[in-house]
């Protein structure tokens, strides 16, 4: 799609190109008017004495630049009826010496659209005014302070007018003790401000009148989107308000329509070529479609933070969130309750979560190399030539410690940086097993369940054995295989019938040692040797970086005895065995059919724990644990009646959940009858299922 940038539409009071924004005709410009005020210029010149700094030029030149078919492009003084002068054959920086600045109005050719307004440019001639502009505007994208003459659009001066007035006031207060240079700078700034208030009087009045009421029109959007203004918009991932800083704002016209194109910057993590990460500025775009009439500023898709209904409160919220974001920039095991999102084919796919997550941007990016992360500024002009770092920004700087390892030293971000920090972090949902963007405000610390291990239905000796092995593995005991890096993991096999507590044992152990639990189903690993190899390598790599405990549930298919007739499965088993040999972490394997485990697996398993069917005492313990969670007040006799039923631990959990829902739906207090009704329904299902199974067997 063809695209071109056009200057913002405006109506300066001195222009002859139609009515002003207020609807009244502009004042007549005196012929050959070359100064804002002759009296002001003479007074300022008389104040100048012989000094190190030459006196400033305080005159303003206005010229029209227009096209004639017989003479080409020509200049003439704005408002003059004198015959147009031919364009001088000299460099731009040599034209019109002796002026503070020159305002060039380019008149559209007659063949152009007659409704197109003239285009204005300022040529800055005075070095003192140039210093003031640099002091006020700092750095403006697309403008080099080394250009001679410096050419700028009037929208920038109108947008920065309040800043210029503040700058002038500060210089005026210190006039008595000011240097000669500062006095000259003050004089040129006063000339600029006087000019703007004279030639752009109606435009300035319209801007101030509208913005004082929190309103704006499309033509004057440049007045609110001034470079370095902090604006707020909605984050597409979290839908929370976030702050960004304006870099550029330009009105764009395409075949599809006109819009204001905003280039914005925020603070995020940036990856370096040496695999380190630092804080830096990244860019994003927001577009505001053209609209008619006047609208509330805070109804725009992006708007300056001061136009928010409660800007001070929002400022505090954004700062607090920025601090939390900065604290989450490394690897963290956290809890998340809210909406996570992932970008797929330029669309945000969202998930409702209430689970534990791993915040880990580096691994996210490594495993999702093509994911569209925010991009840093491509050619920053504030790069230190020796270190390659942004010399004006705070960052995480790689340094070398005494062991020769690269470490990251994180400097504190300033408040201005925290304000525009990213509202999201990247990570992995351990329950949903998906990589997502997470809302920082929805992340909280984990509330560990210390009762899980205590309620584990295992003989005391086995429970202590499990606890000791896992805790000892967290410490470096100095033991290694004859082959370095081999056999340093802890492989625990939990075998027994379904519902006897195998999975719960792994979950309770991870709670007890305060480590993430990465659950992998046998189906997640694939059905070919290549798929299993890739999945295990990825799983073990992630778990090692997180120091997580891995649980591979229902691992029978991989641990089953190999045969000479199934070469595909034999290859899968061989791949599995090789990865087990070199895994350094803690791995739980659950299986139901221990009798057919391959001999090679038996030699690689450090501990094998057998789980029997739950007896009456164990079932009573499980019933009491789940009943306490739902607050059911059953007598010991009623609990014994429930424990007498033929049911496993997982079925007990399901029965408690179903009975609770049944009582809630009937608005009745939870009682024994609800549990018995649920268990009877489960028994009926089992009876019918067994009958059908016997018919087909």
TrEMBL record:
<feature type="domain" description="AAA+ ATPase">
    <location>
        <begin position="488"/>
        <end position="615"/>
    </location>
</feature>
<dbReference type="GO" id="GO:0016887">
    <property type="term" value="F:ATP hydrolysis activity"/>
</dbReference>
<dbReference type="Pfam" id="PF00004">
    <property type="entry name" value="AAA"/>
</dbReference>
<protein>
    <submittedName>
        <fullName>P-loop containing nucleoside triphosphate hydrolase protein</fullName>
    </submittedName>
</protein>
<dbReference type="InterPro" id="IPR003959">
    <property type="entry name" value="ATPase_AAA_core"/>
</dbReference>
<dbReference type="InterPro" id="IPR054289">
    <property type="entry name" value="DUF7025"/>
</dbReference>
<keyword id="KW-0378">Hydrolase</keyword>
<dbReference type="GO" id="GO:0005524">
    <property type="term" value="F:ATP binding"/>
</dbReference>
<dbReference type="InterPro" id="IPR003593">
    <property type="entry name" value="AAA+_ATPase"/>
</dbReference>
<feature type="region of interest" description="Disordered">
    <location>
        <begin position="1"/>
        <end position="36"/>
    </location>
</feature>
<dbReference type="InterPro" id="IPR027417">
    <property type="entry name" value="P-loop_NTPase"/>
</dbReference>
<dbReference type="Pfam" id="PF22942">
    <property type="entry name" value="DUF7025"/>
</dbReference>
<feature type="compositionally biased region" description="Low complexity">
    <location>
        <begin position="12"/>
        <end position="23"/>
    </location>
</feature>
